[in-house]
Amino acid sequence: MLEIAGYAVAVLMTAVAIWRILGGDDAKRRSLWGCFFGFAIALWTKTEYVRYVLNHSQITDAAVLLKHYSAGVAIFAIMYYIVAVYGPLDPNGVMARAVRVSRFIQRVATKTALAALILMTVMFFTIVDRAQPSDKFVSDHAGQWGATAYMTTFYIYLGSASAICLYQWALAFRREDRKLLRTGLGMMAFAMLLGVLYSFGRMFAMWYWLADPPTHTFAYDFDAGTEAMQQLLFVFFALGVSIPATEQGFIRMRSWVALARLYPMWRELMLAFPNIPMDAPHSLREELTRRDIDANLQLDRWLHDIADAVEKLRHYVPDGLLEAARESTGSGPAAQAQWIKAALAAKEKGVPEGPVAAFEQQAAADQDGEVAWARRVAKAYTKTDVDQSLTLLATAGVPA
């Protein structure tokens, strides 16, 4: 069961790494996907088949060394991620204690990472007993001073990184008010707590076994128990990092849906006033797959574009058009949609500009309210045909 869980966790970490790679290439994202990618490799080297093949290769126990190399890279990446997130000064230019700690640890990690990996490599090929390929490295080398020294170097590095992440994410958890982000930070902090217990618990056990070697059964059970703890660690870590991103994903999805609903009306208005948008309208697919602008920002820009176009349309129609639209459909989004369609028709007919006409302005407390109203107008707009617009114009006194 533990071996099956190992494959499942390795697949999970690989999937999250790929997701993060596709998510962007700024410094924070590179550090985070580098962390996931390193840990994904480390987890695959711990799976039964990969572990067996590597450990029985020309370099005995190669899975152990590769696992620690990739985990070391992941630790290095997460140190950079921590500094990228918590490193900036506050608005007053004061460096908080948490920031000072982050920067100090990152500097130390940078200077010691390569030295630690070199030292581990030397010890691996010199003092670690590798006469026989191991299956579970810790339990198979219980009571051996060479393996204990080797693993101590790695566990100090891993445990220290886990401790600083625990410190930062626990502080962020206490300060955060948003529920989903707070939940994610709590899960990440708990994962790092497991990381501290895993690293230093294993290290202390191996040193104790130098004085009092355990039975193979006890050492194997201890190895399996702490291995299960580490798998749980990675599950909580992956879920914790993903939850805040999932919240942003839902926000982005709502923006995409709103953009798709607004697109027909927005496009016709922008074609009528090509000087309003920053870029000429493209196809719906191209607009929804743009990577140069966030979907929520694009939605906000479209709302402003539509509002600007409506203001310009008010110069092409008489005041009576609004009343005619209300008499035709009643007040609300349907009347506004008919007014917009009819005003566009008037502009296309070549009606000269005149005084500003009355228009039904809808007050909204926030962007969500504004989007909801605009979507209702856009839905009604798609159901309004040209004949209705021409009839409405004639009713308002605009000559055919």
Question: How are the secondary structure elements laid out?
Answer:
Layout: H1 2-22, H2 27-46, H3 48-55, H4 62-86, H5 97-126, H6 137-140, H7 145-175, H8 179-211, H9 216-272, H10 284-288, H11 295-313, H12 320-329, H13 333-348, H14 367-382, H15 386-395
Helix pairs in contact: 1-2, 1-9, 2-4, 4-5, 4-7, 5-7, 7-8, 8-9, 9-11, 9-14, 12-13, 13-14, 13-15
What does this protein structure show overall?
The protein is mainly alpha-helical and 400 residues long. It contains 15 helices and no strands. The radius of gyration is 31 Å and the shape is rod-shaped.
Q: How many strand units?
A: 0
**H and E order:** HHHHHHHHHHHHHHH
Specify the biggest β-sheet: none
State the helicity in percent bands: over 70%
Briefly note the structural class of the backbone.
mainly alpha
Low-confidence stretches: none
Q: Which keywords apply here?
A:
single chain, 400 residues, mainly alpha, 0% strand
Brief rundown of the structure:
The protein has 400 residues and is mainly α.
